[in-house]
Amino acid sequence: MTMLSALASLPQEWQLWIDQNLARACTPRSMAEVMIRDGRFDRHLAQAAIEEARRARFPDLPGLQAMPDIDISANTIRTPDRTVQILLALKAPRIVLLGNVLSDEECDALIAYGSQRMLRSPVVSDAEGRNEIHAYRTSRGAMLQRAECELVERIEARLAALVNWPAERGEGLQVLRYEPGNEYRPHYDWFNPDLPGPRKHMERGGQRVATIILYLSEVERGGATSFPNIGLQVQPKKGCAVFFANTDPYGLPDQQTLHAGDPVIAGSKVIATKWLRERTYT
Hints:
By secondary structure, the protein is an alpha+beta fold. It has 6 helices and 17 strands. The strands form 4 sheets. It has a 9-stranded antiparallel beta sheet, covered by helices on one side. Strands 9-15-12-13 form a 4-stranded antiparallel beta sheet, with no helix packed on it. It has a two-stranded antiparallel ribbon with strand order 5-6. The radius of gyration is 20 Å and the shape is globular. The termini are far apart.
C-alpha cells in the first residue's frame, strides 16, 4: 500500500493555501501557526507538509531554522577534551540524557565557585520582564557571566561542541542549590512572545530554543527533573546532564517541554543551567 505524503494528505484547499503563501514569501513558522490554529492540524503534519512543498516548488526560500541538537548516531560523543555518553534520547519532545559530561573535580569546583554569591532564585515577570521572587521557585542561585573564568569557559566550550551551537548564543551558566523542601514547580523555559515581560527578554538574543541542565551533586532522595506531560523523570546524578529543545525548528514553543525541579527530600541538589538562544546573547 502506498502511503500518502504529508502534503498529499491535506485537503486540496490547504495544499493550494501552502503554495500561495510560500509564493508570497511567508515564513514557514507563521504558516504552521495558522494551520495549527485555524486548520486544527497536528503540528508535525503541518510542518512536514510545508517543508515538502518548499523543497519541491520553492527551493530557494528559507526553510527550517537551525537548532541546537545532539548527534545520537553513536553511543558516545567525542568533544575536544572529553568523551560523553548518550544514555537516553527522545525524538518528540527532543530530550537527551548525557553521562560523563563533567568530572567530579569540575562539579566540585563549579559548586565552590558559584556558592560565593548565591541569592534566592528569581523568575521573569510576565508584565514587565523584571526578575521577581516567587513561591513556586525556592532554590538559591548565582548567575555567572560567559567565560568569566577558565573553568566556566572550558565547560561552555564543551557544551557548545556537544549541541553544535556557538557559545555566544547562550546565556551564562546559572548555578542553583536546592535544600530539602526546595523545588521549582512545573514551568516552561521558552519565552511567551505574547506577553510584554518575556518579549522584552527576547530582545537580547531571541527565544530560548534549548536548555541544558548539568547535575553537580548526588542527591539522597527527591530532586528529579520531571516532565509531567510525558511522564518522564530524570534522577540527578553527578556529572550527568539533560538536554531538551524548548521550540521546534519552526520556532514554535513545544508544550511538551513543561518541566519541574521536584522537591528535594533528603540531601541537597546542586545544578547548573545553560539556556541557549536563537541568536547571539548580549
